[in-house]
Structures
1.
Amino acid sequence: EGFGPVEYTGIKMEVVDWSPAAKEALEGKVGGRKIFLVAATLRPETMYGQTNCYVGPAIKYGVFAINDNEAFVCTLRAARNMAFQGTITPRGHIEQLAEIAGSKIIGTKIKAPFATNPEVYVLPMDSVLPTKGTGVVTSVPSDSPDDYQTLMDLRKKPEFYKIDPSWASIDPVPVISTPTYGELTAPTIVKQLKIQSQKDTKQLAEAKEIAYKEGFYNGTMIVGEFKGQSVQDAKLKVRDSMIAAGLAFPYAE
Ligand code: A2H
């Protein structure tokens, strides 16, 4: 980790249809509020290519009131941070409406803001850290090697991961073109490094580094409002556009 706070973008993904287990766990607890899973990302410009969302099955999440009409699903740790960043008011005050295990959220259908696929499913990812971001990760397999490899693992062994194969059926969506790796940077690097599973953590860390640098310094947007612009130029514009649309918020830690 570097020094000083990291500026993430919080992405608001409204729940469209809870999994049966989540429905049961939340019954009568969340009122009539609109509920959002919220993810922290460093790459808001890739949100056009979201195909899923990941939670840690063993992570404990809360449903936190944001105001009278909305609630966020994230870790308590993230809610505490948000309560000191103007996202949750009044300052420092947290109202937890319910608690729920990540395993129960899997299979929930959510909205994917700005994405080509407007609705996507929540899937499990074992490497989600409870100590980073919100504990919720948007899955963009075109540009994130971790997201891509996890999707491949889930497709290979749906019974093992206790998922319905249809939840993992959306293919990576090209969002950014890079001169070296083409329109599907993450899958290309994962194949070049011969990565076999999400347990190949050393190679995945290397792939992540290569994909991040290549996308940021040499990438060009091939979809969306800023199509044709460099990733460096588009990154903050996409972020601002999502914030203006009420679909994202600044989140630092
Ligand atoms: B990124 P850094 Cl397309 N546990 O978003 C594990 N990973 C987490 C997390 C958690 N609790 N919270 C966030 N992340 C992921 C998009 C993306 C990301 C792309 C490419 C690379 C990439 C879509 N997933 O990150 O340790 C989130 O995934 C690679 C740097 O703070 C977040 O951005 O540097 C990133 O890790 C933050 O990681």
2.
Amino acid sequence: RRLGYAIVGLGGYADVILPRFAECRHSRVTALVSGSPEKARRYAERYGVPERGLYTYETFDSIRDNPDVDIVYVVLPNGMHHEYTLRAAAAGKHVMCEKPMANTAAEAEEMIAACRAAGRKLMIGYRCHFEAANREAMRIARSGEIGRPRVVTAEHGFTIGDPAQWRLNRALAGGGSLMDIGIYSLQAARYLTGEEPVEVTAVEATDRSDPRFREVEDRINFQLRFPSGALANCVSSYGSNHNRFRVVGDKGWVDAEPATAYSGNRLRRLKDWRTEDHPVPEAPQNQFSAQLDHLSQCVMTGVEPIVAGEEGLRDMRIIKAIYLSAREHRAVSL
Ligand code: NAD
């Protein structure tokens, strides 16, 4: 059986997701929500969505009456995730919400509570948990093959452009590089060690006279300490390009570069003091289709998603601590 998805927000990332329904086994797109009826019609034609599945932000709540929609996928700017998740739950729909889950941990808590009260699933769009190279790196890091993980380094960033975009607007983005791209470094440190950090320290560098950074941070480096004694050094940047991680154990290491791209992620390992490419295992599905089908299967079987709302909330709480550490120049316990 294929469950029906409504895609809310037809921007850049929706363009990445929509073609991937073609490779799904349990998911299909049955509705589109857009501020532009013309755009919605154009996309409807391309992806085979019927006229009755087209909504605007104003008519969105009537999606409750559409039996073809099981799941609402919120692909809007971060600052709108909270509102649309609450409205979707009130309409009796399950929710897939993009990362970062919300602007604040308090919003994330309300989203979890709203979905729970409505008896609906909530999953966060952490696609790397469904991506073959990342899954293999997790397996290696947690299997003991490189010994006990001692140090993780994770770097994510890109040089951001147009100062007028929503990613640089505090109300719509919730913060700067950390909310958008540094969250991949945080996620990697957590899923590679399989642990929750107990302490964070952070340092920020932002040129507030740069028109891009009037409201949000540029670069913020942070360190995490885990219960096993593993440490993570993480980079988050809107001023430089990074996409890699490495887990160093007491017997070896595994690294990835690119690490969290849409495709082409590559792994390497240290073997007998030599660096070797490590093959990425064949996966039955690409990360996007696997992510979409995972939530559909969770809805059909009643199982909790592996990256449920609680996983998004954990990141939001750590992000809050990272900002506090950078602001007050001190270590923050979690
Ligand atoms: P985008 O700017 O390309 O698209 C945003 C969409 O929201 C547009 O269609 C826009 O019209 C609509 N929108 C509605 N109200 C708006 C408003 N007030 N201001 C601005 N836009 C408004 O952004 P995107 O890159 O598609 O990002 C959307 C979400 O997806 C974000 O939360 C982002 O973090 C997430 N994302 C995730 C990944 C991933 O790999 N998981 C990749 C990119 C983006």
